[in-house]
Amino acid sequence: MRIDCPINGYDERNDDGESVYFVVIPDEWLGLHAVMRDETFAELDKVHLPPAYRTFAVSLALADDYNLPGMSGKFSYDFSKLSLRVIAWVSNVSWGGFVRCYEVPKNF
User: Nearest CA to 23 among 102, 98, 104?
Assistant: First the structure.
């Protein structure tokens, strides 16, 4: 599922009317995504990123594709010049969507 960036200043469109900046997340989260999350966290333990960057890095690893300001394709660890609003948005749609899989509705 492609999710276009809704953040003011990062919501520009190309000539075809498509959003320039986007994240593509799976239509359904699978067990392999849990493995990917764990493997990414293990790799991140070696580079000692701040917590906000760690969540963002895992969010990018879980994404099928993305194009963000100064970043496209898979993985770069230099997030320091990327808008914190963009970092928070990607973390919310990717990591947030993944974590919501673990929510189980309760019967009242």
Answer: 98
Q: What is the largest CA-CA distance in the chain?
A: 51
Residue 90 forms part of a structural domain: yes
The residues, any chain, with a CB within 8 Å of residue 69's CB and separated by 6 or more, are 10, 21, 82, 83, 86
Q: What pLDDT score does 90 carry? A: 85
> Residue 60: which residues within 8 A CB-CB, separation 6 or more?
66, 74, 75, 90, 94
Residue at 107 is within a domain = no
Residues in the chain predicted with pLDDT less than 50, given as ranges, are 77
- Letter string b/e over residues 85-98, b meaning 16 or more CB atoms within 10 A of that residue's CB: ebbebbbebbbebb
Question: Which residue range forms the structural domain that includes residue 62?
Answer: 2-100
